[in-house]
Structure formats: C-alpha cells, structure tokens
Amino acid sequence: MVGAFHGHTHNRLCQLGWHPMYIEGTGNMEGEGCEHVFSAFNELAQSTRHATWFHRHQAIEQHIAFWNQDKYEALTCFIQNHYREAMESVRRLSSELSFLKAALNITDDDFPRFIAKECSYLSSLKELLAQDIQKVHYVQVLDDLKEKGLEWNSACDGANAALSGVIEGDFSAMAAAINQARVRVELAYMKLQNTEALAAHIQGQLGLESPWKVGCEEYNCYREEAMLGKYRKALGELERLVVMRLFELSKLAMSGTGK
Predict the structure, then answer these.
(1) 79 and 190, same structural domain?
(2) DSSP 111
C-alpha cells in the first residue's frame, strides 16, 4: 500500500491499484506505518555514525524499546481520537454522498465501475505520435505568429503617431522619437519573420500543401490538445511545489501548523 502523495513518484494508475482508499476492507488508512518508524530511526544516524558494531546495535535496540513503550502509552488516546474523527467523517460525508448520488442519479454499484473504467482508460492510454506532437507544435507556432503580427501592427501604428506628441521645432526630440519607433518596428518585424520561417519549416515537415488557418477544423483539434498539454504541465508543477513545501515544513517541524 502507498500513501496519497506517493502518486507524485508513481502515477494515477498505481494509486488506483494500491492506494488504501481503493482497496476493499482497508478503509482510508494511511498505509505508511513502516515509513513513520524509519523516519524516527533517522535520529540515530548522527549519534551512531562512528560507533562500533556492538554499540550501534545496542542503540537501535534501546531506541526500538523506548519507541514501542511511548507508542503503547499513547495508543489509547490515538485510537480514541481517530475513532471520533472517523465517526464524524462518516456522519458528514454520508449525507453529502447521498445528496450527490441523488443529484447525479448514481448508486453505490457505479463507483467500482467508474474505477474500473478509469483503470482501463489509463492502461490503454498512449503517448501522442511524433507527427501529432509536431502538429501540436505547429498550432502553438501559429498562435505565436498571430501574436507577433499584432505586435508588428501595433509597432507600425506607434511609429505613425510617434511625432504627434513632439513639440514642433524640437529636432532632438523628433530624432529620438523617430529612432525609438524605428527600433520597435524593426524588432517586431524581425520576430515576425522568424516566426513565419519556423511556421513554414514545420509546414514542410508535415507535408502540408497550404498553411492551416486559425479556426479551421485541424487547428481547433490540435489546439485543444495543446491546451490540455499546458494544463497537465501546470498541474504537475503545482503538485511538485505542494509536495516540496510539505517536505520543507516537515524538516522545520512545522507541518500541520497551517503555515
């Protein structure tokens, strides 16, 4: 069994097969008891690093004995608190679940079917073909090309109006405004040319007779895939940051403090 956050090092399919929440008879237990023990053993590393074989084993045995005694003394309070928490969760979530089942017109028999369907989908899920990946990239370049075209038009409009705010007769200000507008137009045009060249290169690799138009059927199809790719990337980055923050709080002994 693995805990919920192990999905960041495994994957969703692994969780569906081994997470305690999806294993019948385990409830929603953590499944990380051994890891809690191993974490407590880290305290011995510093004190026994240069100890002899005998003293290292002696320290480990004493640590286990005291750790077991402390856990045994706190067992009653632990069971009582978690029993109350579990009963409160059952009471609160049962009513919410009944409301959702009535609203969605589903029964308890549908949940195993949903999990099996998700497992089947993830098992058959394959990565995009190389050509499809290239088409997704082509759509992104077309979006970038549209943006660069708008930027160049804006630079041209700005150049035409560059002298409107300059006082008549101020030749130095006029020269500075003209130079600034020229630099902006040239930079925008260079970016537009580079993007056009990249779009033409990808078009040749894909063997397209004519470039895709923004809004056409092929464009919309692969643009949706591109958006999903960005979403998955952002979601993965968010999960990584959350787990990294939890690890930092654990090292500072501040986990569970609401920081």
Answers:
(1) no
(2) H
257 in a structural domain: no
Residues 30 and 86 occupy one common structural domain: yes
Is 115 among the domain residues? yes
Distance of alpha carbon 126 from alpha carbon 206, whole angstroms: 21
Distance CA 258, CA 97 (A): 27
Domain boundary among 81, 110, 127: 127
> Is 241 among the domain residues?
no
- Tokens representing residue 34 in the block: 């051994």
The average pLDDT across 204-228 equals 85
Residues 127-153 have pLDDT tens digits of 666 778 888 888 989 989 989 999 988
Q: Is 85 among the domain residues?
A: yes
Q: Within 10 A of 142 (CB to CB), how many other CB atoms are there?
A: 21
* pTM of the full structure: 0.47
Distance CA 239, CA 121 (A): 22
Among residues 61, 2, 1, 3, which one has the least CA distance to residue 246?
3
Q: How far apart are CA 56 and CA 41, in angstroms?
A: 12
* Helix boundaries (H) for the chain: 12-18, 33-41, 43-48, 53-73, 75-104, 110-124, 130-160, 171-206, 217-251
Q: How far apart are CA 136 and CA 222, in angstroms?
A: 5
Query: What is the domain extent for residue 150?
Result: 130-233
Give per-residue pLDDT as tens, 7-48: 555 667 777 777 767 777 655 444 555 666 777 777 777 778
- For 135, other C-beta atoms within 10 Å of its C-beta total 23
Look at the chain and report how many structural domains it folds into. Answer: 2
What is the DSSP secondary structure assignment for residue 27, as one 8-state letter?
T
